[in-house]
Amino acid sequence: MRLTPDQLARFADLGYVFIPDCFALKEVDALRAAAADILAQQRPEIWREKDGTPRTAFGDRGRPLSGVALVARRTGSWRRWFARLRGPLVGRLHVEIARIALTMVALCVSALVSRALRRCSP
């Protein structure tokens, strides 16, 4: 299946595309059953809440996609990290929060490495 130019433009602007009636009801049922089977498994790539409810299931052999890569993809590239965002408010807020969180993590890691290096130096 190929996306139309309008769908590609919507994806570029919003970050997602809604395609109604893309799958038959039988296919949707099969996908729901497969998702339930995956979430029922006790595996390290399926993160759970304290009560055991599945929260997130990562793919790619259990390695979560980096938040940096996700923000870079949403903004267009890592060079546009601080560029103005387009799209719906919810999507923009999501990326802004991720930008702030990832920047804070980078600053904390930098501070910890600097502190560790100062302790190790004579």
What does the model show?
- The structure is a single chain.
- This protein is mainly α and 122 residues long.
- It has helices at residues 5-14, 25-40, 67-75, 89-120; strands spanning 46-48, 54-57.
- Strands 1-2 form a two-stranded antiparallel ribbon.
List the helices and strands and how they pair.
Layout: H1 5-14, H2 25-40, E1 46-48, E2 54-57, H3 67-75, H4 89-120
Helix pairs in contact: 3-4
Summary of the model, kept short:
This protein is 55% helix and 6% strand. It is mainly alpha-helical and 122 residues long. Strands 1-2 form a two-stranded antiparallel ribbon.
Please give the radius of gyration in angstroms: 20 Å
- Please report the total strand number as a whole number: 2
Helix content: 40-55%
Strand order of the largest sheet: 1-2
Order of helices and strands: HHEEHH
Shape: flat
Q: What would you call the quaternary organization?
A: single chain
Average pLDDT level = 76
Largest sheet: 2 strands, antiparallel
Unreliable residue runs:
60-64
Number of helical regions: 4
Structural class: mainly alpha
List keywords for this structure.
122 residues, two-stranded antiparallel sheet, 4 helices, 2 strands
